[in-house]
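Example 3.2
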Amino acid sequence: MNSTYCLSKYITRKQIIKVSKVNKFLIMLTILANSLVFAQEPITPIPLTIETDSKKVTLGKKLFFDTILSSDNTISCASCHDLKSKFGTDLTSVSTGVNGHKGTRNSPTIYNSVFNFSQFWDGRANNLSQQALEPITNTLEMGMPSWQQTVAKIKKIAEYKELFAAAYDGEITKENTADAIAEFGKTLITPNSIFDQYLRGNKEAITSEQKRGYEIFKSYGCVACHQGMNVGGNMYQKFGVVKDINLLDGTLNNDLGRYNITGNEWDKRVFKVPSLRLAAKTPPYFHDGSIATLDEAVGIMIEFQLGRKVPKKDKKAIIRFLESLVGEIPEGIR
């Protein structure tokens, strides 16, 4: 497996040449460690259940669907993350917020986001609670002038007073509001996909074509970034590792990703690797939502991340494998 695809610091081939002998030794140790991990199955099943606080979940669910968290009472969290019919996204390139404002990045699915090691495309939030804080006061999303005014709106509603009393001893605060939404977010998992059933021992759960797609997914090197429970979501990676993304027509190269957060040159066009758990159900693709089909997205990733061209039959098999990752929508949602 090429070290270019394994390292969480997304070291490119040119950069590897420049590092010291000591760093080269450390890189080789990292490659060896990754090889040992991938000797076993690199993907693990989503747990069938996850422990949560039921009172906080009840409150968080109401907040998630409530438009009062927006400045004009028209937008809720669910507006961009449709849980029932759109698998936790809105199936648009970028979402529409208050006053018709368009966002700047594609809204990823909120399903299974609890398993991500950071939130947002650029990883600027460490957890679901931090993530829940931002959209409410973002001028392009829910547009509330401040969290102080948001809390004041919530306090005027009798039902919320009761729910906060049960979950947080009556403390209606910015932090508790975000925590409740995050607690509800923990329940939004999609377990028991046929691929998870396969991993748990039912070798007949997936088709021969899906098995072939999984083997190709591993042999091509896709699994170096898309592994673990969420088949992604656990590292950052440069978009255009092997082939410069500037060579691709369109807007993909416009966003500098984590560089906007860190100011580190190595972070230019670096993003959190997305989960592929619901990729088969959540077009369009990539951080700007510019790629309409999974077929095109798979081809771009293999070409620009792995430096290869993929035959149509291999691409089709990989897509069939990705379809096997789609699990069950929670009972309280479907």
